[in-house]
Amino acid sequence: MMAGTPATPTSKLHRTTCSTPGGSRVREEKILVTVRLRPLNRREQAMYDLIAWDCLDENTIVFKNPNHERPANPYIFDKVFGPTCSTQKVYEEGAKDVALSALTGMNATIFAYGQTSSGKTFTMRGITENAVKDIFEHIQKTPERKFILKFSALEIYNETVVDLLKRKSGPVRLLDDAEKGTNVDKLHEEIIEDGQHLKHLIGICEAQRQVGETALNDKSSRSHQIIRLTIESSLRESSGSVKSFGASLNLVDLAGSERASQTNADGTRLKEGSHINRSLLTLTTVIRKLSGGKRSGHIPYRDSKLTRILQSSLGGNARTAIICTVSPALSHVEQTRNTLSFATSAKEVTNTAKINMRIARLEAELRSPEPSALKSILEEKDLKIKQMERELEELKRQRDLAQSQLELERKVNKVQKGANQCGPSSEVVRRLSFPGENETVATTPQSHTRNAVRRQSIMRRSVTSTDPSMLVNEIRKLEQRQRQLGDEANRALEVLHKEVATHRLGNQETTETIAKLLSEIKDIQAVSSIPEESMIGGETNLKEEITRWKSQAGNIESLERKLENVQKSIDQLASAFATSEETSECKTPSKKKKLLPFTLSNSTNMQHLIRSPCSPMTPSRKVMDYETENKVPENNDAMPSDNIAMSGRSKSTPPKSDENGTRKSSKERSPAAPQSSVNVKKMQRMFKNAAEENIRSIRTYVTELKERVLKLQYQKNLLLCQVISMEEDKEAGTDETDKIDESIPLAWHLTFEEDRKEIVMLWHLCHVSITHRSQFYLLFKGDPSDQIYMEVELRRLQWLERHFSDLGNASPALLGDEPAGTVSASIKALKQEREYLAKRVSSKLTADEREMLYAKWDIPPGGKQRRLQLVNKLWTDPHNMQHVQESAEIVAKLVGFCESGEPASKEMFELNFACPSDKKTWLGWNLISNLLNL
Ligand SMILES: Nc1ncnc2c1ncn2[C@@H]1O[C@H](COP(=O)(O)OP(=O)(O)OP(=O)(O)O)[C@@H](O)[C@H]1O
Fold it and tell me: Where is the composition biased (Basic and acidic residues) (predicted)?
C-alpha cells in the first residue's frame, strides 16, 4: 500500500522566491494536490454498494478495511474534501490562490483528475464559475490597472485537438516554440467584454464538447477540455516602474480513466476510452518521472497531445493545482487507489513559476537600443497614440449622446409624472412586469440610461399622437374590441350554462360545484355585457371620454376575476368527476352513467362552443371527432338507444314500453343483456371521453378568455396614459410642450433603432431561431404601431438572457445533472435549423443567385458543403446592420416568407404578456417554427 507523505500547505515547498536580473520574480513550489470524495451516486446506491473510504481529517483519507484485520495506511494531501463538502470550499482551499496568480502575471493551471463519473466535470464547473467571479471582482477593485481578458478553448478528442469556439474549422495543429513551448496554432481567441460574455463562451464550449453515455455516467466527457483565460494588465498611468503582466489561467477538465469492463464500452466508446487511457497514462508517467526529482532524465511530454499542451504546467513555468476526484464505492476501490497513487506522485512535482513582465523586454531593448528595436518601439507608440485618439473621440461621442439623452429624459419626465398619477393601477403594473424587471440588467451607465429611455418609450408614443380625435378613435376601437369580447364570452357562456344545467345529478359535491358554477356564469354575463349606447360618445371631447372610460374600468377587472373563479370551479368539477369515475369503476354500469357531469344531449351545444370564434380548438377536425364519438350508432340492433337509457336512467326513469305499450321488467329484457353489456361499456367509455374532452375544452376556452382580457387591459392602460399626458400638456400649454413635440419624432426614431439593435444582440446571445429573427426583422420597420411588439420582444429576450445566465450561475447540484441545459439545447436547435435551411439553398435559389451569394459571402469555389457554409455565415455579426439585413433577406427567401406575396401578419408575434417564467418550460418562439414546419 502506498502511503502518502505529509504535505500540508505549510510544509509546501517555497524554496525561493527571488528576483531575476530582468525584474521577473520566480516562485518555486510544489503542485497543490487535493482530493475530493463525492457521495455515493444513485447507481451505486441502487446496487447497495458500500462506502469504502473515510476522511479522517482535513488532510487524510483512509481505506476502511472491511475485514478490520489491520488498519490501512492513510493517504495525506494538501487537503481532503469529504462527500458533504461544497464546491465553493473546494475552490477556496484547493484552487483560488493558484487561479488568481494569473492576475499578477503568473501562469496558472487547475485540473481535475480521476476515474470516470468521479465528479471532475461537476467540480471544474464550480471552480471555473468561482474563479471567473473572483477575477472580475479583482478587476473592479483594481481601477489603477487596465486589464484585457482573452478567452480560448480546445478539446483533445481521440488525440485530435479541436478549437471549441471554431469547431467547424477542423483539427488544429500544435507548434513547438523553443522559448514558449508548445503553442496551439490559430486557436481562436475572443476578447472578453464582461462576465456575461465569458459565461456565454463557456456555455458554447459545454455545448460543443464531446459527451457520451457510458454504463457509469450518462454524460461522460469523452475528451479533455482546456479553457484558457489570458489576462494582460498594465498600469493606467506611467510611473517610475511601469509594469505590464501577461499570464494564462488554464482550467482543465480531463476525461476520466475507465475500464472497458466497467463502462461496458464497445465501438466508438471503446475507441474513445483507449485514447483517453493512453493519454492519461502518459500524464501519469510524466508526473511520476517528475516526482522523482530528476529533471535531467527524459520526460515523455511528447507522447501525448495532452502533456505537450500542459508541459509548462507540469514542472515548468506555472503554478498548478490538481483536484483528484474519487468515488467512495467499494466497487471502484482499485480505480480510487490508482487516483490516490497519481495524487501522491503529483504532490512531489516542483514547478517554477515566473511573473511574466512584458515591460522587462521593452526596458532591456531600451537599454541597448538597436535601430530596428527602436523603430518597433516608436511604431508601437504611434499605434497607441492613434488608439487613444480614437478612444477620446468615442468618449466625446458618448458624452454628447448622454447629454442629449439627459435632456430628453428631463422633458419626458414631465409627461411621465402625469401618467404616473393616473396611470395603470398598481395591480396592472404588477401583472405587466416580469420578475426582476427592476433589477439592473446592464450595468454600464449608458445601457442604464438606454433602458430608462426605453421604458419611457411607451409614454413618448403617447406624446407623438397629438390629435385628440385620433385618441378618441383609439379609445372607441378598444371599446369595440372589449364589447366584441364581451359578446363572444356571453355567447359561449350561454352554451356553457346550458351544458351545465342539463347535467344529470351526481353526488352531493358535484351538485354543489355545478350550482356554484351556474351562478358564477350568470354573474359574468352581467359584468361582461357593456351596453352599446355607453360606448359611443358623440363629440370628440377627451375629458368626457376619459371620465366615462374610467367609470368602466372596474368592468374588465371584475370580468377577469370572475373568469378566474369559473376556472377554479371547472377544475373542481373535473377533479370531482375524476374521483367519482374512479370510485364508480367497481359499480354497475347504470350507476356510472349517473355520475357523468355532462350528457350527450348537449353535443350540438358543445359544437357551438367549440366553434365559437375565439375557441382555441382547431375548427373542423375536432368537431368531426365529437360528431362521430357522440353519435349513437344507427344500425346496430344489438345496441338500441334504450340500452343507454336503461343504463343511465334505471333508477330515475320508469322502464320504457315495448311496441305494444307493455312495460317490460329488466328481467324480461335479459336475453339481450350479455351482448349489449359489452356495447354499453363501450358507449360508457365514449361518454366518459366526451365528457372529459368537454371539460378540457371549456377550461382551455376560459383560459383564453382570461388572456384576452389581460391583453385588452394592457392596451387600455397604454392608451389611458397617452390620453392623460395629452390632456396635461394641453392644460399646461407651455412652450416646453412645443419643444417636446419638436424633439420627439426624432427621439422615437432613435429609440426604435436602439431597441432594434438591442434585440438583434439579444437574439445572437440567446441563440434564437434565425427564421424567427428574419421574420421579425423584416416585419417591424419602425412604424409607431410596432412599438408594442418591440417592447414585448425585448422583454422576452431580456428574460431569456437572464434565465440563461441564471442557469449559468446556479450550482450544478441544484440543477441536477444538466446545468445550463437550455443554452446547449438552443445552440443545438439553431445548428439543426441551419442544416435544414442549407438543404433548401438549391431549391429556393437559382444557380446564378447561389453563385452570386457564394462570391459575396466569401465561400471559396470548390469548397465542401458550400450551402451549409453560406447558411452558417448568416446572422453571425450582430454589430453590422447591413449583414443583419442581408441575412434576413436570404433566410426569407429560403423559408419562403415572400412567396405568397402577402406580408406576414404581425399578430403571429403574439403579444403574450404572461410572464415566461410562470410556465414550467418556456418553448420560446415555437409558434413561428411551427408555422414554418421547422
Ligand atoms: N461532489 C458531488 N456531489 C454531488 N454530485 C456529484 C458530485 N460529484 C459528481 N457528482 C455527480 O456525479 C455524476 C458524474 O459526475 P461528472 O460527470 O462530473 O463525473 P466525471 O468524473 O467528470 O465523469 P467523466 O469522466 O465520465 O466525464 C454527475 O451527475 C454529477 O452531478
Answer: 656-670
Q: Is 114 annotated as a binding residue?
A: yes
> Of 128-142, 313-327, 740-754, which range is least confident?
740-754
Atom number of ligand 1 nearest to Cα 256: 25
Summarised one tens digit per residue, pLDDT across range 816-835 is 333 334 677 778 888 888 99
Same domain, yes or no, for 180 and 283?
yes
Q: What is the pLDDT of residues 720-753, one digit of tens each?
A: 555 555 555 555 554 333 333 333 344 556 678 8
Ligand 1 pocket, mutate which of 117, 213, 254 (most atoms under 8 A from CB): 117
Ligand 1 proximity of 220 Cβ (cutoff 6 Å)? yes
Is residue 66 one of the residues assigned to a domain? yes
**Helix 641-649 vs helix 673-732: angle between axes, to the nearest 10 degrees?**
80
* Half-sphere CA count of 844, side-chain side, radius 13 A: 20
- 687 and 768 co-located in one domain: no
569 is a domain residue: yes
CB of 878 closer than 6 A to ligand 1?
Answer: no
Domain shared by 482 and 567, yes or no: yes
pLDDT recorded at residue 694: 61
ipTM above 0.95, yes or no: yes
The number of distinct structural domains making up the chain is: 3
The closest of 41, 51, 116 to 331, measured between CA atoms, is 51
C-alpha cell of 906? 404581425
Is the Cβ–Cβ distance between 653 and 559 less than 8 Å? Answer: no
Check the annotation: does 537 bind a ligand.
no
Under the banding of pLDDT at 50, 70 and 90, the label for residue 322 is: very high
Give the end of a domain, one of 679, 695, 722.
722
Helix-helix angle 371-422:735-766, to 10 degrees: 120
Q: Which atom of ligand 1 is nearest to the CA of 221?
A: 27
Give the pLDDT confidence score for residue 58 in this predicted structure: 94
What is the β-pairing status of strands 220-221 and 211-212? Answer: antiparallel
Cβ proximity of 432 and 392 under 8 Å: no
The 10s digit of each residue's pLDDT in 554-585 is 565 666 666 666 666 666 666 655 554 444 44
Residue 385 located in a structural domain: no
Return the SS3 of 8: coil
Give the domain-ending residue among 309, 334, 362: 362
On whether the CB atoms of residues 745 and 715 are closer than 8 A, the answer is no
Supply the pLDDT for residue 437: 30
Residue 37, pLDDT above cutoff 90: yes
Q: Measured from the CB, is residue 336 less than 6 Å from ligand 1?
A: no
41 in ligand 1 pocket by Cβ < 6 Å?
A: yes
Q: Which residues of 738-752 are buried (b: 16+ CB within 10 A; e: fewer)?
A: eebeebbeebbebbb
Order across the sheet with 75-76: list the strands.
53-57, 60-63, 75-76
Q: Are 303 and 342 part of one and the same domain?
A: yes
Domain membership of residue 380 (yes or no) is no
Query: What is the domain range of residue 886?
Result: 741-931
Percent of the chain with pLDDT over 90: 18
Residue 110 has pLDDT above 90, yes or no: yes
Centroid of ligand 1 to alpha carbon of 13 (angstroms)? 32
Same domain, residue pair 708 and 592: yes
- One domain, residues 768 and 850: yes
In sequence order, which ranges of 818-865 are alpha helices (DSSP H)? 821-844, 847-856
